[in-house]
Automatic annotation (TrEMBL):
GO terms for molecular function: guanine deaminase activity; zinc ion binding. Residues 5-123 form the CMP/dCMP-type deaminase domain. Keywords: Hydrolase, Metal-binding, Zinc. The keyword Cytoplasm does not apply. The keyword Hydrolase applies. SUPFAM superfamilies: Cytidine deaminase-like (SSF53927). It is an enzyme of class 3 (hydrolase). The lineage of its organism: Bacteria, Pseudomonadati, Pseudomonadota, Betaproteobacteria, Burkholderiales. The gene is guaD. This is Guanine deaminase. Its EC number is 3.5.4.3.
Length: 159
């Protein structure tokens, strides 16, 4: 399914946030929540290193910021992520009521870059969502976003 211009714009913003996270000393992941009109409701970046919070993933930070929104507002929202949401983030997306995920780099790509030292729970986002009681559309990986280049900067000796 081709992405809309809004999807491309908001995914590009998530990738920009991943570069910011890396520049601040965190793992390079960014996320944006957009409504059906393409307005940004919240954005976040990975801060697990600088905050010393292992749940400080970009998607988790976005979901924390939208805690006051009503389920009806989230049902038509899309969360954009520079990297495939991990199992923790995917579950949080599901429980928040967000019904659509678009991501750039795959979790497998990141795992391959990080190499044998990686601490992984390799459950693809779409696989986790298939087990839910409501549908969450998952689109990705999306090529040519620049996300893989930023990941390579974080792990230059791996691939």
């Amino acid at each position: 399914m081709p992405l809309s211009s809004t999807d491309k714009r908001l995914l590009a913003r998530a990738v920009e946030l991943s570069a910011t996270a890396l520049a601040l000393g965190n793992r390079p992941f960014g996320s944006v929540l957009g409504n059906a009109q393409g307005n940004i409701l919240a954005e976040g970046q990975n801060d697990e290193c600088t905050s010393a919070d292992p749940t400080g993933h970009a998607e988790m930070n976005v979901i924390r910021r939208i805690a006051g929104l009503k389920p009806a507002q989230l049902k038509n929202a899309t969360i954009y992520a520079s990297g495939e949401p991990c199992a923790m983030c995917a579950a949080a997306i599901f429980w928040s009521g967000i019904r659509r995920v678009v991501f750039a780099a795959s979790g497998q790509y990141f795992a391959d870059l990080e190499g044998p030292s990686a601490t992984l729970l390799p459950l693809p986002c779409a696989e986790l969502m298939r087990h839910g009681s409501h549908t969450v559309e998952v689109i990705g990986p999306v090529a040519d976003t620049g996300a893989e280049t930023i990941l390579q900067q974080a792990f230059p000796n791996q691939k």
